[in-house]
Amino acid sequence: MNPETYVQEKAAASGSSFYYAFLFLPPPQRAAITAFYAFCREVDDAVDEVSEASVAQAKLAWWRTEVARAFSQTQSTDGLAAKASHPVLKALLPHAATYSIEAHHLQSIIDGCQMDLDQTRYLDYAGLARYCHLVAGVVGEVAARIFGQTQAQTTAYAHQLGQALQLTNILRDVGEDAMRGRIYLPIEDLQRFDVKAHEILQRIDSPRFQALMAFEAERAQKLYDAALALLPTADRRAQKPGLMMASIYRNLLNEIQASQFQVLHQRIALTPLRKFWLAWKVQALGRL
């Protein structure tokens, strides 16, 4: 299997909403974002799909070394980092110079995954925001470059949108994360609404839990508003794939709110057809 086929299958197999935004891109950009997204999935899976923390640590350490070596080998005569050993980097590196993808971007994403090994709680939103920045804001920054960013302010939009998307993910996955012993919702917010950590870990619903979730959902809604306000008009057309993601995830957030936050024992999701419709609406009509 060649690297391009590998990353295509990795991206498609994830079932992520991101895949729908890729469908409308021209082939060179679609190849770049697919390879980049496959990298993100690989390092995330190194943590989420491994039960032994020591094994996950070793996998992330390997990725750190692999990224450092691959970028340090620049550039052979055809522009490739010849010594990359993993198919994901073999597929991604030919696009690195074109879209200004640098080693520190990939290392930051690894840093975010490392946080999942190092801690299962966040004292305050500032700590959670740092995590969201590493695992989603940096992803948004690279994606914006691939999509065709021309304005410097678009980076701030991408960071803010990444925060909104990741917080939506966290709200969707409260129950699943609890089964892994993780609580991403800040301790200061739990205390504010008198929700005990053991209640979340035991997946106990209550009016207090719903009030906490309503607070976090409103925070996420404000992040979407702030992100969209930051996007320069000159880059709005190029950033349509990101706007597709905003539309899909904001609709998901609306569904979570409409369910009265029934996320402890089920995974709320949009159907593939609805995701495609939302993506198409942004592509064809320019509306979220």
Gist of the model:
The protein is mostly helical and 288 residues long. The protein has helices spanning 3-13, 18-22, 27-48, 53-72, 87-92, 103-118, 125-147, 153-172, 174-179, 187-192, 197-201, 207-230, 240-258, 272-285. Helices cover 68% and strands 0% of the residues.
What does the model show?
- There is one protein chain.
- Mean pLDDT is 92; it is low at 76-81.
- This protein has 2 domains: 1-9 and 18-118, no CATH class; 121-288, Farnesyl Diphosphate Synthase, CATH 1.10.600.10.
- With 288 residues, it is mainly α.
- The radius of gyration is 19 Å and the shape is globular.
- It is 68% helix and 0% strand.
- The protein has helices spanning 3-13, 18-22, 27-48, 53-72, 87-92, 103-118, 125-147, 153-172, 174-179, 187-192, 197-201, 207-230, 240-258, 272-285.
- Helix 3 (27-48) runs antiparallel to helix 4.
- The chain has 14 helices and no strands.
Per DSSP, what share of the residues sits in E-state strands of 2 or more residues?
Answer: under 5%
Largest sheet: none
Global Rg: 19 Å
The end-to-end distance, rounded to whole angstroms, is 38 Å
Q: Give the fraction of residues assigned to helices.
A: 55-70%
N-to-C SSE string, H for helix and E for strand = HHHHHHHHHHHHHH
> What is the third-level CATH name, the topology of the largest domain?
Farnesyl Diphosphate Synthase
Tell me the CATH architecture of the largest domain.
Orthogonal Bundle
Q: Give the full name of the CATH homologous superfamily of the largest domain.
A: Farnesyl Diphosphate Synthase
The best one-word shape is globular
Question: How many distinct beta strands?
Answer: 0
Domain tally: 2
Low-confidence stretches: 76-81
What structural category do the secondary elements indicate? mainly alpha
- So what's the CATH class of the largest domain? Mainly Alpha
- The total count of helices amounts to 14
